[in-house]
Write a structure and sequence with these properties.
Length: 146
């Protein structure tokens, strides 16, 4: 697994430095390049926080700021998106979301992932996904207890 911070995003540099080796150990089956790119307001009609297309994680500094994610919540969210790439999950199916969330938990960011999901939930920007977001929180909480 190799990482490329295409737009020199500071938090992505930290993510790669702190978690890059752990992620490679957790997902040795993935030997591709994962790119990180900025998602600007001009190109973000849906006001996405972050997401992935193929092997690229897109990151909106503006939307992350609007929701108020802390740096560690951003790191957890980046790990979640990397989880979608390394496990090749492609949709909002709850099993796909759980698998991506687990990658964040496996590198020690489970509680930060819960906190990030909670802030996304409270932002009310994804009303149609409320039950799935709550389900993701419960899944992570149960996993962390066990």
């Amino acid at each position: 697994m190799h990482f490329k911070n295409c737009d020199n995003i500071d938090i992505v540099d930290s993510f790669i430095r702190i978690f890059g080796g752990m992620l490679a150990d957790i997902a040795p089956h993935y030997d591709g390049v994962i790119e990180f790119r900025l998602l600007t307001d001009r190109d973000n009609d849906c006001q996405d926080i972050m997401g992935r297309i193929g092997n690229v994680v897109y990151f909106s500094e503006e939307e992350v700021s609007r929701i108020g994610l802390s740096d560690v919540e951003i790191l957890a969210s980046l790990a979640h998106e990397v989880g979608h790439i390394v496990y090749n999950t492609r949709n909002w199916d709850i099993d796909c979301e759980h698998r991506a969330d687990m990658l964040a938990a496996e590198i020690g960011l489970g509680s930060q992932m819960i906190s990030a999901i909670d802030k996304i939930l409270k932002s009310r920007r994804y009303n149609k996904l409320t039950s799935k977001l709550i389900g993701r929180i419960h899944f992570l909480q149960n996993h962390m207890r066990g």
